[in-house]
Structure formats: structure tokens, C-alpha cells
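hiii, so i know i said id send this last week but things got crazy w the move. better late than never?? heres the sequnce for the chain we talked about at the cafe, plus the structure i predicted for it. fair warning i was half asleep when i ran it
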Amino acid sequence: MTGGQVAALIFALLLLLPGGCFLVFGIGMLNDRQFYDTGVMLALIGIGILAVMGLLFWLAFRKRPPPLGSNTSGP
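okay and structure toks below
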């Protein structure tokens, strides 16, 4: 794992809690008429944060292509 992948993993884990909280509270507020607009905004912010988190997880765990000069087929 490279340093960039480790950093992406750390930031993805740090974004997991606020993204999940925004989404849960947003969905919870969708049932209340008084706070419906706030619930929609919280849910959208949560979805955005979780999308960034998913991108960072993908960056952290993707397999890098081998260098051009390496022989991967064997001797």
C-alpha cells in the first residue's frame, strides 16, 4: 500500500461517521412536516459525504497496474 492509499483510507474512515449521521438524521426528519426541508438537505449532504467516502475507499483498495517494463507472464 502506498502512502496515498493509506491517506485515502484514513480520510474515508473519518468521513464515515459524519456522513452516516447526516443521512440518519435527514431521513429521520423527513417524517416531520415542520422540518421536512431541513431533512431533505441533511439527507443530500449525507449522501454527498458518503459518495466522497466511497471514492476514497475505492482509491485506497484499487489494484495498481504493473509497471510497463515488468514481465508478469513468467520466465
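btw Residues 11-61 form one domain. thought thatd interest u
miss u guys!!
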